[in-house]
Amino acid sequence: MQKGQRATASSGSPASSAQRKFATGVEQVKRLLAEADAFEQRNAYVFRHEVESRSPQHVAYRCFATEQEAPPDDWLLLAGEAIQDLRSSLDHLVYAASGGQDRTQFPIFTSADTFKEKAARMLQGVPESIRAVIERAQPYHNSASNPSQAMLEQLRLLSNLDKHRTLATVASAVQHEGIGLPTGVSVT
Residue 64 in 3-state DSSP? Predict the structure, then answer.
């Protein structure tokens, strides 16, 4: 979406506030990814490794990263804006579905018990059919084996972190994806 261009829904009608927030968040993520790719291409971090063969059965690998260029400071703001736009798009959906009732929000919980205990007050005025969709989207359904790793839970955590603390920009890379081992050699 170009600056100054008005978002529209697929039906051609003006986009809702939730759709506009979501579209803005997606554009911010795309911009951040493009900047991160350009950063990587500039060799902002130089990687080297050392291999020391101590015996046919013992090899030591050491990997080093040298920062040539720090990540830009505005990445923290851009990431925070993207996170907040994506998170608030969900809240805008719930607010609209509630008919504009105050104190509504999109609940995100990692346990069914907590959802049952707390979601009702967050979803006041929201039709039961929409409540059911929200409940099915919860991390304890989508990542039952590890709800804390579900995307919605990660969005909730990042949103709270950005609201109350400073995000940290981190760059990382892997020089070697794996190590081949001759038959009879084990890694300890």
Answer: strand
* pLDDT of res. 176: 45
* Domain spans in the chain, listed from the N-terminal domain onward: 17-42+71-164
Q: Where residue 170 falls among pLDDT bands split at 50, 70, 90?
A: low
pTM of the entire predicted model: 0.76
Distance of alpha carbon 83 from alpha carbon 166, whole angstroms: 13
Half-sphere exposure of 158 (CA within 13 A, CB side): 22
